[in-house]
Amino acid sequence: MASSMEAQKKRPRPEVYADPLVVPALGEHRQTFILLHGRGSHATKFGPPLLASAIPGFGSLPAAFPHAKFVFPNASRRRAACFNRSLIHQWFDHASLQTPSVREELQIPGLRETSLFLHGLLRREIALVGAENVVLGGLSQGCAAALIAMLLWHGDPIAAVFGMCGYLPFGKHLEAITRRSCEEGSNNGADLDDPFAHEDKAQPSPAEDAIRYLCDELDLPKPMRSMAFQKIPVFLGHGAEDEKVPMGLSREASSCLEALGVNARRKEYNNLGHWYSEAMLADVVRFLRELRDWHEFGP
Do the strands 68-72 and 21-23 form a parallel or antiparallel pair, or are they unpaired? Predict the structure, then answer.
């Protein structure tokens, strides 16, 4: 009996994601926004205040995008290493928000499970409105989870991803692998004396090398050379006075995404801490309204 109980303790517990908060579109449903809360929060705490936030020139997110349904998923409850292993809502665990590279292995189970969960949500909404009409975004750790889910996405490119006051887990490793692969590729040019130098060997690109590393770390299947994330525009906003996620982490995330071939735009906001602002939300709206392929946003 004791050995049976011990085996049960060691067996991984399947993570439970409560039903998301879904706010219907004001008009005909043509777009879907999937927006992730930060660590320690939940959908009903994050979603309604965000949708009610005034945005100069646009009213609010629902007013700016009246055909958008807003989906606010709930992170599962996980043991938090930095809070004495207390159970809190978080997309993945980590030892330090200020220095995510410390004990990075803590992030792996949650990032793997959360990415699979978010991919399921993406597929469901894509079936309703098409990939070109789905936006993924998040605040703080929700931004981090959204970026990883984007990099691991194998389907058609979605409309866009935006993040507020977030970072990119494993970003330093991904950028180092990408840049090292670029250097090795340029140093290993075709040898004029090698009769096989011009054979098409379909070598993986530097970005593919980096994503394969990420898949290995998270124990997920490797992508089939789709690199859909390279066709997904990204906007990252960050408060210059952010006391929880240092602004440097946002800069690192942007640098890594650009190295991976992502069209990433980033903006810093003075006198703003670890939250969003009217100005940031207005820039998010402008960024999304520039998209060419999704349905019109007006009535």
Answer: antiparallel
